[in-house]
Amino acid sequence: MGTLQLNTNAQAVSAFTFSDLEPGWGYSENGDWSKNKSITVDNSGTLNLKYRIRISLVDTESSNPLLDNLMVKTTYTKNDVTTLVYEGPLRDYLTGKLVDPNFLPENGEETVTISVRIPITAGNDIQGQIIKFDVLFEATQISNNEW
């Protein structure tokens, strides 16, 4: 027997709050992702674990066009190696994305970076839209095959 204990410094990291978004927002001059937040994730339990990131909509309808037009890129860095987890529309995070396909060992730590942007090809249907969501980190034992 043991315990699962996944911790983040997400409370210390300010929320994603943006306004006046438009097609092409979030791109740097060289085309890289320019709007990023990094969150430290650590396992202080006594069991190895795996975890996923999922969003929960807050006062937002699932038909909101920003769910399909707000692009998200997620990476994790462990032992100085950065690995791409996912790159695509925010909508795909409604069901969750497994972060580290291996596991986070007891006393292990890694950094998750979440980047966002809106493609230049986004249409006018995003005008005036507001989206609010919580970012959830959910952990389970590595033997859970349902994830």
Observed structural traits:
mainly beta, 147 residues, three-stranded antiparallel beta sheet, Jelly Rolls, single chain, 3% helix, five-stranded antiparallel beta sheet, 39% strand, elongated
**CATH classification class:** Mainly Beta
The total count of helices amounts to 1
Listing every helix as H and every strand as E from the N terminus to the C terminus, the arrangement reads: EEEHEEEEE
- N-to-C CA distance: 21 Å
Structural class: mainly beta
Instruction: Give the overall form.
Output: elongated
Based on the structure given, which CATH architecture is correct? Sandwich
CATH topology: Jelly Rolls
* Helical content (DSSP H or I, runs of 4+): under 10%
Percent of residues in beta strands:
35-45%
Unreliable sequence segments: none
Mean pLDDT: 88
Number of domains: 1
Give me the side-by-side strand order of the main sheet. Answer: 1-2-7-4-5
- Please give the number of β-strands: 8
**Alpha carbon gyration radius:** 16 Å
Q: What can be said about the biggest beta sheet?
A: 5 strands, antiparallel
Describe the structure.
There is one protein chain. With 147 residues, the protein is mainly β. The protein has one domain: Jelly Rolls, CATH 2.60.120. Helix content is 3%, strand content 39%. It is built from 1 helix and 8 strands. It has one helix at 66-69, and strands at 6-8, 35-43, 49-57, 71-78, 81-89, 97-98, 109-117, 133-141. The strands form 2 sheets. The protein has a 5-stranded antiparallel sheet with strand order 1-2-7-4-5. A hairpin with a 2-residue loop joins β4 and β5. The radius of gyration is 16 Å and the shape is elongated. The mean pLDDT is 88.
